[in-house]
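User: Can you write out an input/output pair for a complex, sequences first and structure second?

Assistant: Here is one pair. Inputs:
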Amino acid sequence: MKRFDLDYYLNGLKAENTVVLAQAITLIESKRRSDQDLGDLILTEILKEAEPSIRIGITGTPGVGKSSFIEGFGSFLISQGKKVAVLAIDPSSQRTGGSILGDKTRMEMLSKNPKAYIRPSASGSALGGVNNRTRESILLCEAAGFDAIIVETVGVGQSETLVNNMVDFFLLMIQPGSGDDLQGIKKGIMEMANGIVINKADGDQAKLAKRSKTDLLSALHLFAISDSGWQTQVELCSALEHKGFDKVWSMISSFEKQMKGNGLFAQNRCSQNVTWFEDRVNLGLLQVLTSQPELTRLHQQLKYKVQENECSVSQATAELLALARQLLA
Amino acid sequence: MKRFDLDYYLNGLKAENTVVLAQAITLIESKRRSDQDLGDLILTEILKEAEPSIRIGITGTPGVGKSSFIEGFGSFLISQGKKVAVLAIDPSSQRTGGSILGDKTRMEMLSKNPKAYIRPSASGSALGGVNNRTRESILLCEAAGFDAIIVETVGVGQSETLVNNMVDFFLLMIQPGSGDDLQGIKKGIMEMANGIVINKADGDQAKLAKRSKTDLLSALHLFAISDSGWQTQVELCSALEHKGFDKVWSMISSFEKQMKGNGLFAQNRCSQNVTWFEDRVNLGLLQVLTSQPELTRLHQQLKYKVQENECSVSQATAELLALARQLLA
């Protein structure tokens, strides 16, 4: 990996150079201390000149058509004068590198558009398989002039919460028919979603999609309206037939307008910064501790003992934590 | 929460008393230091007399019928002389407490069986929303005489890896038709799975289920055979019609026999202990650090500054980590 100086990155981002953007994200993802320090300098600088943007999170089970939707919706946003960046959070990529966005050809049209930037998810992972640099990547994309950021995540699980903590608008994508089986959609995700899009509302499924919308809307009434005063909306869409992108965008725009009106847009981003801070602190503190030679040595010894069944996990943990407490005393 | 002494828990578990089992799991899940210490004592004691057991992880997207399958399959296992415990990992429960196993009535038949124990997932969460006490709960269930442990997880995401790291056999459940759309099943999860069950192989879908099996088997040939020499198997099942449980069980039994034959069963559990140790150490080290008054004070101050936008996340993190390094120097 080639490294450059602070000015190189700052000038390149200012010039909206996507090659430099890619290099900056790679730098941010690096585990080297010096890279991280330089990355922090870049972030601190670019935050001084932050431009308005909208960050959209998209989730949905595999096969629901997220990639096709993003391909079409991204092109629609570009036609509306936006520059679109697509990022991904893929916590399950620990073993194989994952498939999410891994193949840029899945969004062939969009990836060729000079006003789009698609970043495949990093295969590297930190603290539990989560690539925790997506937040920083969003800021870098924005510094490079991208004002619509789409963060894709796979299916159900912790990734939902992660993405929800870094976007302005959280969109749940489902298929026609899912509304019948509300057990299938976890309440937590329904509550997180600011909007629900029923994709594949075309051909044979158009009618079913309409019924799903009705079912969903009545299900949504079971939930209390959120503190923000926003009522989750449901829209139909066909990524295949390029229909409904305008309605999805107008849903997101109404949300943005309402949240900016009541001050919650900025307030939400501030709370997200706190979460981001906590995540970075947790990760950083662990790195600080595990770089203590004495602790590292005992850690290795105990790990071996656990592996060989010479020591229970509880005993080993207690012994290591005792040393940590002693070092800090 | 009522607390008891070590002997109370040990005797209760030995007597296979499920009330005491529930109390012990609650103790283990507590965040109080004294509870955790007592929990560690219990774990260290029960590990001395560990009995043979089989730990089965089950994953699949919502709506695939995991609950109905576990209800039926659990009853089948009991008819084979087993005692069955059902636990859940639900990383998305951070906000609402989640729906997974939350409603015991979803497994009404099984939950009434005295040879079954069903533990709804804890709503409390630690380090990134993950209820990291499932591993300990497995051991407690085993100490209480349960020799078939089923760990359920929701959908795709990090939870798969978590569960895979604490079970002997990892089962992926899909619906008929999913085999056509291999993009929908992440390669990582396919590789993790020791067996795949196609549920809902009944009525109109019976034929489709058979074709899915063929598709899946040929897809599985794309993967190299795992280091263990085990080739992932695919079985059909209808939880609705109570069909196929015997085949699923015979698949799991063959796996168990083969892995015990080549020594990998025990070796896998030892490796899992190492992962468990690492998880506990990471969590414990953070607790040790964050209990330092000086660090806690600065942490609170910086958090406030981040919240009020007076300080960038990068700067705040750097300042806090500098203090941590200083404290350890």
